[in-house]
Amino acid sequence: MDDLREKYLTLIKDVADEAALEDLRVQAVGKKGEISLKMRELGKMTPEERQVAGPALNALKNEINSALAARKAAMADAALEERLATEWLDVTLPSRGRPAGSIHPISQVTEEITAIFADMGFSVAEGPRVETDWYVFDALNIPGHHPARAEMDTFYMKTKDEAGNPHVLRTHTSPVQIRSMEKMGAPLRVICPGGVYRADYDQTHTPMFHQVEGLAIDTDISMANLKWVLEEFCRAFFEVEGGVELRFRASHFPFTEPSAEVDIRCSWEGGTLKIGEGDDWLEILGSGMVHPKVLQAGGIDPAVYQGFAFGMGIDRIAMLKYGIPDLRAFFDSDLRWLRHYGFASLDQPNLHGGLSR
Questions:
Q1: Per-residue pLDDT for 18 more than 70?
Q2: How many Cβ atoms sit within 10 Å of the Cβ of residue 187?
Q3: Per-domain residue ranges of the chain
Q4: What are the DSSP E strand ranges found in 41-81?
Q5: CATH code, residues 105-341
Q6: C-beta separation of 217 from 252 below 8 A
Q7: How far apart are CA 158 and CA 22, in angstroms?
Q8: What is the DSSP secondary-structure string of 103-168?
Q9: Residue 255 to residue 141: CA distance in whole angstroms
Q10: 59-63, 78-82, 84-88, 244-248: which range is least confident on average?
């Protein structure tokens, strides 16, 4: 055993790397190592011989294992010292720059819309995206046979509320108008921005998009007030000096009476859209005076109060203002697109060229 001790302690001391050290461990104390085989011979010895050889072999095995562990730790320390000598970091140098994020165009435009209407006395109202069909359709005077209530247009859910009304993903933010009337009563002046859902998908439609709707209720609200509010909004949003010209075309919406589609004067020069000048017209939103049945659904007496409402696509007017040709790109999470159309901050809009026709 003295020979084994001297042999392995010398080999462990002179071993060059961890792989050789592991081979040496297997050779000495592995299942078939020299010391392990010696310990198997204890069974062939007499009790008197085992009393002498057993403790000596255990002591040798423990000594070799301790030497192996000490050598492994020493080699690890040496490797670390060598690495520290060749790798270093100057903590006084400036840190590596991180790519700056950007504000998504939808968030930017929503902030712009909110700021403009806030200057005109409108507050922001929000509501759930998962609604009941009563708030989405019935309270808005949309009859049961209306095409919008078909499953081909609306995402229905399997759950219902306590009154038995099925849940749907809201198709517009008009339900927030009903909830605002229920909560705040009249007079009332709110805008309702948020995500909405419809079963469409093409260059100008996606299953999820964003709308902002406005509602003003008082005792003497008229279409003239609606026209002024929309003109002021378009002038500020599209940054047109001297104002814009809007055209109101008679239309039909179940929740307003009378109803009007609103067009804005524009021109196309070299494939670039210019708002506020030219001989062309571009439809941008729908509007009208709130239907008496809608006022009643919101708990407001239509014999005393009246009001106007309007709605527009946030994605759509973002496309018009910043020259974004495809609605689907808003939801693709393409970093190249986000870097191109993103905004460094809400105070520093990144303006781009016009929309290609």
A1: yes
A2: 14
A3: 2-86, 105-341
A4: none
A5: 3.30.930.10
A6: no
A7: 63
A8: B-HHHHHHHHHHHHHHHTTPEE----SEEEHHHHTGGGT--TT-GGGSTTTS-EEEEE-TTSPEEE
A9: 6
A10: 84-88
